Amino acid sequence: MSKTVIGRHRVGDFNTWLKGHEDRKRIFAPAVSSFQTFQDAGDPNSIAIVFQVNDLEKLAAIINDPATAELKKKHTVLDPVILSMQVDV
Question: What is the average per-residue pLDDT within 4-22?
Answer without folding.
Answer: 97
